Amino acid sequence: MVALEKTAKQVIEENQAAVQDTRFPTPYQYMGVAQYALGDLDQATRTFEEAVRVNDDDVDSWLQLGKCYLYKLKMPQAAAALEVAVLRKGATDELHSLFKARNWMANWQDRELMIDQIERFVDGNLRAGKQTSVNALDFADLPLPSVLALSQQAYHMHVSSVDRRLCCEFDDDWQLETPALRIGFVSSDFGVHPVSTLMRGMLALLSGPDHPDVTVYCYSLTAASSWWRRNISRHVDHMVSLMGKNAVESAAIIRAHRVHVLIDLNGHTLHSGLSIFQYRPSPVQWSFLGYPMTTGSNAANGIDSFVSDAVATPVESLTQQFTEKLLLLPTHYIVNDHVQMLGHTLEGPRPRLPGVRDHTFVFATFSNWQKMDPSVFSAWMAILARVPSSVLWFLRYAGHDDAEGNLKREADAHGIDGAARLVFSPLAPWVNHTHGKRAADLVLDTTLKNGHTTLLDALFAGVPVLTLEGNRMSNRAGTSALRALDLQHALTVNSLKEYVDVAVFLATHPQVMSKLRAQVEARRLLHDEVTRTLHEWWRVLKPGGALFVSVPDLHVLASLFVRADMSPQDQYLVMKMMFGGQIDAYDVHNVGFFEPLLVAFLENAGFCEIERVANFGLFNDTSAMAFHGTPISLNVQARTCDKKDGAQHVHVKLTTV
């Protein structure tokens, strides 16, 4: 691409006349596409601007100019350029690009007509085996079979010419030569991007002293510079630039690092690195976080598994929407860095939303404009109509000048005073705006595509989020996050009518709202970990499998602590046994156990034949630990039971007291 850019620039400089011949791609197009592929959106934009100035009939350059503006989040300019290409110059195959640009400004002009035309275009192309540049994630209205087919087609466009020389030969010595696990993350989003804000903490943790046997490689596909990029670079073991490298060169670099697990963080988003994965630079390859739907790949041509959770992608209903195998986490799949980076959001009184009178109920939606649609907006207006002393709060994303006017006009058309009832505030830096979100009383999630990062920000800020459960991963993120807090029964609904009714009920019942907010605040850090852990142990054990649990006995420790003969030093040691020695990040006890409580937890998780034992006698473990001659361990052995039919026994002898 670097060579192509230089050649095109030379042709333009030496022979301006050739630029006028539109029977073939112009040098401007070659140069702009090369600059775009290299991640230089600013220069690519200037090149396509010059191309259409030189020749107003250069349709492809109008299209590329519109897309450059779109990715630079200059929405009015994007829509204007795409309108020239699609409506004036007849490039109707790119109607979906114009639709996307308008959506980013909440411009729903001819929306249903455009969706119908796009669906017919996609269906016709898929039936005829023709390629299309429609990105499935941009069109949540499309039928699910079309979404899957588009994702497969998009991936196959990356792998149309595969050199198998790098593929699939991995010797055992490579994988076992060192106890260190080498993990690689491939992304174009290590700059100012939600992926960076979410992943920073996990990358730092994996690279830190608590994981000495893990080596982390981050492979950056762009040269974007930011505090996030610098911070991640300081924490991870290796930050490697693949900027300007093609897929084969990139795969060779990764392969030379002998990475065991390679993880895609892009999916089909801007400057994706999916094409690298076709060359199989790592024996295990996954996709995670950056794209909430299938990549269209599989183990045969790139991506082995897709990481999600059982609520966002329930296997009984959504497996057919993925070409990869699903790796399901036991809790919400979207990792975050809130505790490390946003602890200040837990402190101080709630801020007030400027310009809003006291006792006004503040509904909020923090998703950007392209996640909104007329149906959910109509539901929001119905809510405002039934809660007169309320406002709906938006953030000013890119294209906000046009979006604000469009949304206020839509509100007026619904009988709501848009100027008075819709509130818009500027975006603040990520480390600050989560604190500001505490001013909201209730977040109304978008329905076609849920909030993801914004939803987690709101929950961490202690704000309840109302979500409508969807039928695909992109609109089940809210359900998954609320399930992780065990709040799905209160805040997840199944119809727009229920969505409106629940929002109105909460806004008009302040005591219920107050209790619900308190629950969100209490559960946003740690919730239900013991129950989830025991359920996960039950899940992975064979039926009838044995479980051995040894924990400090809180009853014994409490009795020791208050004994008259205990010195302050002894009491301090007993306290450390209660709460954990805290010698590292994991040596902390979040709950204390005594026998009836532990038995209840185990039975609830599906274990049976629960018996207390003196010790395990397996090795020099803590089951025989004593303090001042008093055994302090609560040792329990149990078996997994079939939750319907009782235990299925295996031949493991359990020694009882």
From TrEMBL:
Keyword Glycosyltransferase in annotation: yes
Keywords: Glycosyltransferase, Repeat, TPR repeat, Transferase
Gene3D superfamilies: 3.40.50.11380, Glycogen Phosphorylase B, Tetratricopeptide repeat domain, Vaccinia Virus protein VP39
Origin superkingdom: Eukaryota
Keyword Iron-sulfur attached: no
Domain annotation O-GlcNAc transferase C-terminal: ranges: 163-346, 356-525
Enzyme Commission identifier(s): 2.4.1.255
Pathway annotation: Protein modification; protein glycosylation
GO terms, molecular function: protein O-acetylglucosaminyltransferase activity
Pfam family, one: Glyco_transf_41
Xref: InterPro entries: OGT/SEC/SPY_C, SAM-dependent_MTases_sf, TPR-like_helical_dom_sf, TPR_rpt
EC supergroup of this enzyme: transferase
Repeat region (TPR), residues: 25-58
Family designation: Belongs to the glycosyltransferase 41 family. O-GlcNAc transferase subfamily.
PANTHER family: PTHR44998, UDP-N-ACETYLGLUCOSAMINE--PEPTIDE N-ACETYLGLUCOSAMINYLTRANSFERASE 110 KDA SUBUNIT (PTHR44998:SF1)
Protein name: protein O-GlcNAc transferase
Organism of provenance: Globisporangium ultimum (strain ATCC 200006 / CBS 805.95 / DAOM BR144) (Pythium ultimum)
